[in-house]
Design brief:
By secondary structure, the protein is an alpha/beta fold. It contains eight helices and eight strands; from the N terminus they run E-H-E-H-E-H-E-H-E-H-E-E-H-H-H-E. The two termini are 28 Å apart.
């Protein structure tokens, strides 16, 4: 299937490792021009090499996504190299786990900047180009916690639904410009972030980390955890020409594990 992504300018946020890297490499495989950003220059260079090995053109830019100026710099670098951003995939590492009484105000502020405000800022920066071209795709990566709260992830459970509300509202405002906005909500997908959560749960419950992973997999109707490459395939479709009539949705990538009807 030709997804129509050849030569598109794609910006994938927090793309040096994990889900972001898998998504960036997926776009590279479609022949896209991919701007990657993250804090680590070394891991960015490694991810950029994977994108180019897959067949794309990579543009790695070091960025702290809690810094408004740094965000503007990433978009400007994408504009200079590729003539704008056609597809924006927002993404970030999840905020630390913890119960309500374990999370201080400084942690709330940090998480708000990282998880929510970064989406606002990147979107504000790329929208003028998309509107001018009458074409664009915005795909925020959230979490299944936006649909169904996850134990011990209070901060994520609070902020992720806000991104869904933003995306749903924005989809109604920009659809007439040929721009779609769809969230992807992954559940347990094997990444370094999931390792962090497994270790946290192990400390709280006394379970071995391997047992935590086995229990998570057993709770999935499909009987296993998700793979980053599978999530990337979903994002590629939502960014493609084939998904032009889909907007304002939050698609669960959860192996059937969430219980809600919608």
């Amino acid at each position: 299937m030709d997804l129509g992504l050849q030569g598109k300018s794609v910006l994938v946020v927090a793309s040096s490792t994990g889900l972001g890297c898998a998504i960036a490499v997926g776009f590279g495989g479609e022949g896209a021009h991919v701007t990657l950003c993250a804090r680590s220059e070394q891991t960015l260079a490694e991810a950029a090499g994977l994108v180019e090995a897959a067949g794309g053109e990579a543009n790695p830019v070091v960025c702290d996504i809690t810094d408004e100026r740094a965000i503007r710099n990433v978009v400007e670098r994408a504009d200079d190299r590729f003539g704008g951003v056609d597809v924006l995939v927002t993404n970030c590492g999840g905020p630390p786990p913890g119960l309500f009484e374990e999370v201080g105000e400084a942690a709330w502020r940090q998480a708000f900047d990282q998880v929510f405000l970064s989406v606002v800022r990147f979107t504000q920066a790329v929208l003028p180009h998309m509107k001018e071209k009458k074409w664009g795709r915005i795909v925020p990566i959230v979490s299944i916690s936006a649909k169904q709260p996850i134990e011990n992830l209070l901060v994520s459970n609070t902020l992720r639904p806000g991104i869904v509300g933003l995306a749903k509202t924005l989809a109604g405002e920009v659809g007439r410009h040929g721009i779609t906005v769809n969230c992807v909500a992954p559940s347990y997908t094997r990444t370094d972030r999931l390792q962090e959560l497994a270790e946290y749960r192990s400390e709280k419950t006394g379970e071995h980390v391997d047992q935590v992973f086995d229990n998570w997999a057993a709770g999935m109707p499909v009987g296993r955890l998700g793979k980053p490459e599978e999530l990337a395939d979903l994002v590629l479709f939502l960014a493609s020409e084939k998904a032009a009539f889909l907007t304002g949705n939050t698609v669960a990538f959860d192996g059937g594990s969430s219980k809600g009807l919608f």
